[in-house]
User: Fold these one by one.
Assistant:
Number 1:
Amino acid sequence: MATKKSPSEFQDPHADNGQEGMASDLSGFEAPDDDNAMGSEAVESETEAFLFGVDSQIMAVKSELEKLLTGLSRESDGVQSQAALDANITGVGVGVGDGESVAGAPGDPVLEVYTLEPESNGELRGRLASVAGVSALSDGDFPIKAVHTGVIDAQPHRMRLRPAPGGISCGHFAITAGTLGCLVRGRSAPRINRLMVLSNNHVLANTNAGPLGANILQPGPFDGGNNPADRIAILERFVPINFAAGSNNVVDCATGWAWPDRVRRELMYISGGVIRYFRVGSVPVAAAPGMQVGKSGRTTQLTRGGVTAVGVTVNVNYGGGRVGRFVNQIAVRTPGGNFSAGGDSGSLIWTWDARRAPVALLFAGGGGTTFANPIASVLARLDVQLVT
Amino acid sequence: MATSLPPGATDFLDSDPLPVTRQAGGDAAVAADRLPQVVIDRLMGIAGVDGVWIERDAGGQRVVVLHYTPRGSRAHLPATVEGMPTRIVGGEPIRAL
């Protein structure tokens, strides 16, 4: 079950925690090539198409405000500068108007300005006209919309990170976002030479939709992942989920064939605002009631819980009226909190002890309980072994 | 969003994982934590029941948990299964996360 490591292929595990060097020496694996991937030229840039039709004056003001934001970010030393407070702006973008609160017809492009403090559209327009010196903003009909966001914090498990660790946002190009669980490799040629990311079918394969070769992005599309620029892997294999009445499923899992220089074997977590990395063991263990476990996931990040049940049978909703029955699952709960939430799917669950032995693959939840596939079943069905 | 962990709770993540040593005798305990398939099928056939499993209560006794999604009366759900008391949880569907 465990990955056999050769010195030339894997690095010394005693590398300093949190250092980029830990991810090195995954170079012994073959990278996917474009024959296996969906053609990049087939990916339409809907964003560019939308912006192409936006009024040039809106784009000019947007550009001016982006320069202002750049200047404010240079001034900041971690706290909000006085200039930033004066400008009351945290971001800018192009949205669509409702035809009521903003000048123009419903659906017309409007300049959205994200603010630290609540402010009316008129107040914002007038103040930015003086701060940014943009004459167009003195026009009362300029379509500008204030959107109160407050301070925008980075979401570390949702950011773009290379090489990408386990526990971070990822997903098929057509989904929202899930979690990169960990790395695996095939058990026999040619897949033994492929370094792969492990997650759920509904994260990497868009719930049976595939197709094989589809781009897998980090972060996931909902977290800003762009296709194909943020591609770290291509869909390599998935176990179909059977939604037919009377059918039983055991796993919701898939692999993505990764570029070795775009991923790392460690999992991440945040401590004191700093990204830290850790390794899990390479030998899985079976879950048992009472076992303390942990996971690192895109949404709830690092959490601890307890296995409350094994041999679980559940009906799981996948949207669109699709319900799949899963048997022999594992249930996990965190007293007084949530072990997981939407976006944590695909997280590897491991023993919360010095072994950090893989136990399960998180995929569902409801009513305060998280459900996960036994990791041994996942590895067997995908015919892979862990790379930890 | 993250569940807060007490200081020092993650110190064990800094070292290399320790090897796994196999322990005998786990299979019997696991078997007692599983219901017979025919019982699972019967319980899952009750409208609104979308999950069935065995848990331990605070005293360590096994209880059969029924994940029941609809709100309203639960009087029609069994009070015991295979000699074990039942506990009803849920109130919302189980979803892929």
Note: The interface with chain A takes residues 1-3, 5, 9-10, 12-20, 26, 29-30, 33-35, 40, 44, 50-56, 65, 67, 69, 89-97 of chain B (CB under 8 Å).
Number 2:
Amino acid sequence: MLEWYYAIFFLLGSVLGLMLLGMPVAIAFIGANIAGAIYFMGGYGDLASQASRGIGQLLNNALPSLTTFNLIPVPMFLLMGELFFHGGLATRMFGAVEVLMGRVPGRLSYVTVAGGTAFATLSGSSMGSTALLGSLMVPEMSARGYKKHMSIGPILGTGGLAMLIPPSALAVLLGTLAQLDIGKLLIGGIMPGVILAAMYVVLIWFQCRIDPQAAPVYDIDLPPLSHRLGMFARDVLPMLSVIVGVILLIMFGIATPSESAAFGCLGILLLCVLYRTLSWQAIVNATAGALRVTVMAFLIIFGSATFSALLAFSGASAGLLGWATGFEFSALTMLLIMFGILLILGMFMDQLSMMLLTVPIYFPLAAQLGFDPIWFAVIILLALEISFTTPPFGLLLFVMKGVAPPDTKMTDIYLAGIPFILCALAVVALMIAFPGVALYLPSLVK
Amino acid sequence: MQRFFGWLDKLTNFLAILAGIYLVWIFLAIIFQVVARSVFLYGSSHIFTFIEYGLLYITMAGAPWLVREKGHVYIELLTAVVPPHIRPNFSRIVVTLVIIICAVIAWYGGEVTLRAIARDEVDMRSLDMPRWMLMISMPICFGLMALQFLRFVIGPTPLHTGEAGMHE
């Protein structure tokens, strides 16, 4: 048997190596697992019999990893999000929010935060959300005289909110991989998410205050108050009620996260019917969109099913755990080291791959350090998103560069993102200082 | 060859449509289950079992379609730094490795399926599902994925564009 450090080098190195070659992430995991399964699980005999046993074991492990009820909220949340957009509810809601904001300085920045959070949460892809909002909102806001940081910053910031505020498909995936209570994890993200949203609002207000020209006020036809209230009741409240309803169903133990997610879907579907915006094409597009992300994510889970088992079986997990705790660093230092590693991985890897690589190592380590798993998972979710926007190589920065107007420099994007990253880091610090921020609401879950 | 890929696309589309229908069925089944449990105090545990199995079938039926749509997430770093005249061939070599991995899983997936038939293996949940009915989805999926990836090896358009970053 290999020493644990060779085993970890072999397993992590082969996954990363195949990914860097440009293989689809799912196939890179499967390729590395094939080699690992033959070596560590193949037993004795010639290569053919080792391969037969090892790969057979790999495929048998993949079956229960996918066919678990815990994963159901992922396609349901995605279907809900796709229906929300293809059913025309998103356009209706964001149009109303924009009008309701009135002549508030920086209103488009606030709308971007709200819209970006909803889009990234429901689409399950912060890259897709950044690409869409970057190409739609940045030119629009530039035309209105907004400075770059007022348009780019909020878009980069919304990914962090999307990871925290339910319905977050990535939170469900993390909860499933780390074998956590999905309902508690979803609820645990709410308070940090709300605090982060409030910080963004204060940040935009402050940016407008110190430099009014950053987001010039422009004249709009403001409808009378009664009209605006009607608009809120008709175009905003019903959609918000569906999302709040999903959260309350989970929180009060009325339904499981999977059932709540399905009811969220039903709620959106009924709203589409009420607004007469539901069409056959919208249903087909929404199903195809949900299918696309579901298959992509689940095939990666399929591919990595044996990965944590291989880490455990080869002694790599236990060896690394013993090594890491042997330094006798404080729990906080260990947390910061884990945080730092995620920041590095975020430069060239998607969030799901980062989760799959780190969860089998991080969560046993967190348990050893005495961390509450829900609290730790909420911090990990935020770290995953911060890593995506951290200069100089965070992936979202390059996505933004690709879709923003041609005169946008990388330094514009860095400077726009930094205040929002600082807000997210402040929330992490708050959770470390006051774990109740992430744990109070889950303690109410029945 | 064009005719072959035409048939392959038809089969791939058919499976993707089945996956989409199964996805919608899962949504409806959960609603039905909750309503039946609350209103009629009756619920079928078999429905939950088929919802769980659905996650496997959806993934396996949709994966070949996603290959054709270039929907599987991959990272372009090396392919972005290799000289442009080498890139297409480099990409084809990488995709050939991908095909080999898919073919290996298809082969051993077939072996696991045949073994499950020979041994009458069952997956025990609320009902005893013959295991081969689940495992057979793997060789079919990975076989079709290998054939869809082949398009990027012998076709005019390689998988990788050379544009650095993550693609999905």
Note: The two ends of chain B are 27 Å apart (CA to CA).
